[in-house]
Amino acid sequence: MRHADNRRGRRSQHPARTRRRRVRERAARRRRLLGLAAVAAVALTAFGAVRWQSDDPHSADQAATSPHPPSATLPPSPQGPANGSPSPSPSSSASASSPQTKESSADRRVAKSGTGVFSTAAANGGPVGKGTIRRYTVQAEGGTGVSASTAAKEIAAVLGDRRGWTANGHDGFQLVSSGQSDFEVKIATPDTVDRICGAAGLRTRGEVNCNVGNQVIVNLKRWLTGSPQFPGSLHEYRALIINHEVGHRIGHGHESCPGPGRPAPVMMQQIDGLHGCRANAWPYDTSGGYLEGPSVP
User: Residues near 159 by Cβ (< 8 Å), separated by ≥ 6?
Assistant: First the structure.
């Protein structure tokens, strides 16, 4: 009995130590539980994130295929296909029909230089118009590919047209093949035009026509291709060339556009732009009215 009493006495002698031990044990258990709870929470969070991505049918594809992820430094965008060739322009079909493109393709058929020797058309015609009748010949340079006789027929038709200079009632023309003439119409290659016109101090730059001495020099390039500024037919542009240069021969100077939408005077240098006027190849309209504009000093 004493022995048992002694054990109970020892337990009763240290109640505070026992309570502290139990408190430490409970605290240790709480820490272990909190740790397990934290691990579980992390696992659940990760699991939830994975479930969120897999529930969005596009998110995984977007992340894998997006070329520009957020906050990434983007490389310079390419300027064309990998081979360096420019991308086709959607407007390329429209530019293929522009006057500039038509002229460029026709330019390939134009001889830049010829023989320098001219053949005269074996063609004659009766006088057209009244008053002063000017006799003229038509010539083509060798190497142009232009038939002088064919060109002579077209030029005679232009000078005899009722919208031409004969409508003024005091100027007339006659195509001849020989004998005395008042002027010559010469169709020449660009290099020959530059040489003949340049000798008179005129700069034609292989592009334009000139009137020098008793010669109307028609640039082959303009005869075959027209002008980017003239939307009419090639025949109409040839009429403009002849009417403009012959106009100089009978005393007319340059004129300018009389106003937006009005016909451009034939003495206007239409190859330099229409400036609001409508392209026109004739000095007179069908009613006999002169299509004039302000004189150019």
Answer: 128, 165, 166, 173, 175, 242, 246
Q: What angle do CA 216, 217, 223 make, to 5 degrees?
A: 115
* Cα torsion angle, 226, 231, 237, 240, sign: negative
Give pTM, 2 decimals.
Answer: 0.65
Phi and psi torsions of 182, nearest 5°: -90, -30
10 Å CB burial of residue 102 (0-12, 13-18, 19+) is middle
Residue type, 126: G
Give the pLDDT band of residue 74 (cuts 50, 70, 90).
very low
Give the CATH architecture of domain 118-254.
Answer: 3-Layer(aba) Sandwich (3.40)
| Distance from C-alpha of 219 to C-alpha of 140, rounded to nearest angstrom | 11
Where do the domains of the chain lie?
A: 118-254
Q: Which of 52-56, 94-98, 149-153, 281-285 has the lowest mean pLDDT?
A: 94-98
